[in-house]
């Protein structure tokens, strides 16, 4: 495999890697991949603790292939993550650059969401410093990749929870509203809702209206269903919030006992799925090798099962779209 190593541009000798913003399952697997790809190509690797705040404080640790043993299966991030207000200031970023220069770092891999990518772009613009992004967020709300790291794991977590809720719902003729993450996008709600066989799925992209919801639930009841699961994305606009929806439905359908379950932060945790581990491994390799080829200001994404690069500014500015075909599938399944 020496031919591969030789093909790489060796002006980059030391790469920094950080996890930033909200954590997601698969971040550790991506870190492991970045560190090992560096080792494979004979490039030094520095782990940066607590995202941009660690960059400002020079909180770095040299990482070798053995520093990342036994983390591929771990949720969260061993580098810790943070949100840094100071990095939003010019002074903060100057401090960061001083530490970067002193450490001999030549390029940076940022594993995080669109905010973290924006930070990376600003840093690149100000100091002409090479940056590569890996999308780590459970929401799958990043343009330029059909899947972000952690999305698949979060879906599996949500489906497992809803399966359990369904057991109790069907034993007691109950209607459950299950709130899942997704302030601006309904990817988790739609995919997990279809996967868990929800009767209704409420997402921010579509305002169903409370009356149509009640009508639909009534139809479902008349068709012989004695319990129902409604999956609601956090940012859904059908009601003010999931509790208000519960009150409204209870008032209009007194025959149902209505309950609410908010899944919350458990959706972010847990051991990454096989898909997320493989994706993280592939993305880490692409991120490091792209930097070594002299590329900068890209995010690594996956589309049609091919790992490819998307310019960071497009990844930040672009909007992901809800899958209309999946919406239709969901409608048909609730006949
Ligand atoms: P999540 O999807 O979980 O919210 P994120 O990466 O979008 O993850 P943010 O909190 O938006 O999370 O951003 C992470 C960090 O990136 C911020 O705390 C800040 O340090 C840096 N950052 C974000 N936007 C900017 C910006 N405009 N300029 C400089 N730094 C920024």
Automatic annotation (TrEMBL):
Catalytic residues, chain numbering: 139 (proton acceptor)
Entry binding sites for ATP: 22, 83-84, 113-116
UniProt GO cellular component terms: 6-phosphofructokinase complex
Positions bound to Mg(2+): 114
GO biological process: canonical glycolysis; fructose 1,6-bisphosphate metabolic process; fructose 6-phosphate metabolic process
Pfam families from the UniProt entry: PFK
Gene Ontology terms, MF aspect: 6-phosphofructokinase activity; AMP binding; ATP binding; fructose-6-phosphate binding; identical protein binding; metal ion binding; monosaccharide binding
UniProt-listed Gene3D superfamilies: 3.40.50.450, Phosphofructokinase domain
Keyword annotations from UniProtKB, A to Z: Allosteric enzyme, ATP-binding, Cytoplasm, Glycolysis, Kinase, Magnesium, Metal-binding, Nucleotide-binding, Transferase
Cofactor: Mg(2+)
Superkingdom field: Bacteria
Keyword Aminoacyl-tRNA synthetase: no
Record: residues binding substrate: 137-139, 174, 181-183, 234, 259, 265-268
Chief place where the protein resides: cytoplasm
Localization annotation: Cytoplasm
EC numbers: 2.7.1.11
Pathway participation: Carbohydrate degradation; glycolysis; D-glyceraldehyde 3-phosphate and glycerone phosphate from D-glucose: step 3/4
Record field: catalytic activity: beta-D-fructose 6-phosphate + ATP = beta-D-fructose 1,6-bisphosphate + ADP + H(+)
Regulation acting on activity, per entry: Allosterically activated by ADP and other diphosphonucleosides, and allosterically inhibited by phosphoenolpyruvate.
Top EC class of this enzyme: transferase
Residues that bind ADP: 32-36, 166, 197-199, 225-227
Family: Belongs to the phosphofructokinase type A (PFKA) family. ATP-dependent PFK group I subfamily. Prokaryotic clade 'B1' sub-subfamily.
Function: Catalyzes the phosphorylation of D-fructose 6-phosphate to fructose 1,6-bisphosphate by ATP, the first committing step of glycolysis.
Database matches in NCBIfam families: PFKA_ATP (TIGR02482), PRK03202.1 (NF002872)
Assembly and interaction partners: Homotetramer.
Record-given protein name: ATP-dependent 6-phosphofructokinase
